[in-house]
Amino acid sequence: MADGALPLSAYTPAVEAATAAIREKLKDTVTPLEWRLQAPLIAEINALKRDRNAVVLAHNYMTPDIFHGVGDFVGDSLGLAIAAARSEAKVIVQAGVMFMAETSKVLCPDKTVLMPDLEAGCSLAASITAEDVRLIRARYPGLPIVTYVNTTAAVKAETDVCCTSANAVDVVEWAAREWGVDRVILLPDEYLARNVARQTHVGILAWKGRCEVHERFDAEDIAEMRRSWPDAEILAHPECPPEVLAAADFAGSTAAMSDYVAERKPRRVVLITECSMADNVACDAPDTAFVRPCNLCPHMKRITLTAIRDALLTGAHVVEVDPDVAARARTAVQRMIDLPRPAKPARYDLVRAGHAVAVELI
Ligand code: 13P
Ligand code: SF4
Questions:
Q1: Percentage of the chain exceeding pLDDT 90
Q2: Within this chain, do residues 30 and 84 fall inside the same structural domain, yes or no?
């Protein structure tokens, strides 16, 4: 263990001192008993990061002990991709799912990217293969292919540009302009595609992929929330079915939802998304009450403090992407990063006007 690292299996006074600021942030979220188990691991991970010149990129769906305890960069898929590209650390530990780790490796081929659990997948990434994309390209020559970052590097390599839920409308409109077409292929999330189509005049060709977490929400869930909590503002992720977004007050990426709460400080809010999101946002929003009708992502929940500690201790599991695949995927991801960040996450002028939505399933 590194010089200055703490002897850390127990909740010692040294651990207590090293984690005091994090404890303060988590005081309403983590029980004293949980904290005595988490604090030694948090202190150990933070010491190992210094020793290994490593950073932890933590997605908004990580549990609060990870998100607030050991995350050096936290945020949505877009924010983490940008952080990976800019990081000067030698080692990146991806506290998220496999497609995010691959994206980090694609953007940082010279860094070591560690994935604490190789089984942390994603139903969207699993819904489409590189061969599917090649067949789609052959069937629709001349149309640009925009791919959600929730895909494998092999799929990204077949695509023209990536998007996340934070920038999907802007990327689709950019691609239509660049290619001089009025239709764009947007893969693989059918609901994201339908929700993007409500906010643009560009026609969308979509795939039938679904997020297994967000597809479980329905319009009745929102109606029930409205009946139970009439004063609550309801925010939903764009991977939810369109009828859920239509009934919500706001739709946006995980970062956009977090920003909404930070900026508007609603008295009461409902986040229609993965469970840990509200726990993390609540730690920084003492004046907002949270209603928590969430669904767990089993893939995100595979990442634990113990798995992160073990990744740093043992160097497992190193994420590799074939250099040719990585180079082609990098072009698509970098194009997305180089586009200006959208000023506003959603185009509600079109949604409110109820404009005709053009979506065709491939
Ligand atoms: P964000 O890009 O909004 O962080 O979403 C990623 C994700 O996996 C949501 O299910
Ligand atoms: Fe994939 Fe959905 Fe889990 Fe996000 S929440 S990682 S989209 S399965």
A1: 83
A2: yes
